[in-house]
């Protein structure tokens, strides 16, 4: 085992050194160091730390704890010693409420997205004061999965995912709810909620002709409005535009917040893993780190999204996680070995279908059979194993290529592509690799940085994105102990779900901080962002 580890390490370091993506030396301006961790006080910490929000006046974190049906309120007045103050018990508010999915804070007003007890029913946004007193309950669309305040604090924007039920017999429409929250929050009514849908893009609708055919509309018997599933939101600094990921559809929705209308739908396309720099490890059965090019296209399918501004231009940053529709009543997920490949497109089909090649790779059966005769001319995998920067109109400016797998291979060669529930080498190579899930940007000393959380192997990638067309890698930090069983608290952080940047001006210790909430371990870890030596 030791000889294997050494060989793997040498391979990974050599590959890292020779990769064109790493020809330039890393930017060494900042360094992340973990300084404190809050561990949710529940027996099973799964889903006990999902999304965190920060109130700088009270120096408190509000952490979604879906396992306990609470929002945990944690003091970080001393960031090295985060302390639970109390919890907001969503489960005690009534049986119409299901789990909390997201939380956001502005000026002491805490907004929580809560799905209905039946997730296909309309959900809710609950408003609390900073001490956890319920002020109001407003109905929004089905399955509110994420919400955020606009920077000016005048509106709450909610992504209503509208997922179907397991048999796929009920499929609510996806939508965006906009709550105008000026004035007394206790006096808000449903009249203050506008829900923006996608009905105009349905077949026969006035905007159907605008629908890019690359946007994936494929749910059984679903209209466009039912099929689009808003996932995550980022709002521009002028509070006028929201960018919303439509993950399963591999698209973005651009929302005009002043008019409460869909400005456009943007198809994101795919990443060609056959091109230099776009390699991936596609098999969990080859017994080695094997980051090479394959005739596969990766659907970007971002989860989290953020925006930043430089030189007067707005840019959009995405964490390209990937996601498949996989329900009892309908599933698009399959493996290459289970597909018939068109020999004209794949003359070496038999070799590709081998488990040590592409045979184990999970791909979609809903895209790629161009002539619909049962034989696939193209293969599409889920996610791009990267982060990307897009223009404000959706043009791809930059993609981190195969950086994430090469960097993690160098850092943890014996645990390469392990999952967040095991320490098994190569376990996630046939799925979505390190699976970038979360992203946030932050401004430090006149530079802009992107922080990307990797859901599976764990940790955070840091890039300087001050030049959006030429970002530079800064650091990879992972507060996980692979020598410990994943069920042990000693394993520390498993499964980053959300990342939160706190600027120095609002930080308790006057240092910029990064807060990482980890879904599998139920831990929320605070990193100090220091000037590198």
Please describe what this structure looks like.
The chain has 533 residues and is mainly β. Helices cover 6% and strands 39% of the residues. It has helices at residues 2-18, 224-227, 349-352, 403-411; strands spanning 30-39, 52-55, 60-65, 70-75, 83-89, 97-106, 109-116, 122-129, 134-142, 144-149, 155-160, 175-180, 193-196, 230-235, 241-246, 251-256, 261-267, 270-272, 297-299, 305-310, 313-319, 333-335, 340-341, 362-364, 375-376, 380-382, 387-391, 396-399, 436-444, 447-454, 460-464, 472-477, 496-502, 513-518, 523-531. A hairpin with a 4-residue loop joins strand 2 and strand 3. Helix 1 runs antiparallel to helix 4 (403-411). The model is unreliable at 1-28 (pLDDT under 50).
Percent helix: under 10%
User: What gap, in angstroms, lies between the N and C termini?
Assistant: 36 Å
Strand share of the residues? 35-45%
> Mean of residue pLDDT?
94
Spatial ordering of strands, largest sheet: 1-35-34-33
Radius of gyration: 22 Å
Major sheet: size, sense and barrel closure? 4 strands, antiparallel
What would you call the shape?
A: globular
The class by helix and strand makeup works out as mainly beta
Low-confidence stretches are 1-28
Number of strands: 35
Question: Can you count the helices?
Answer: 4
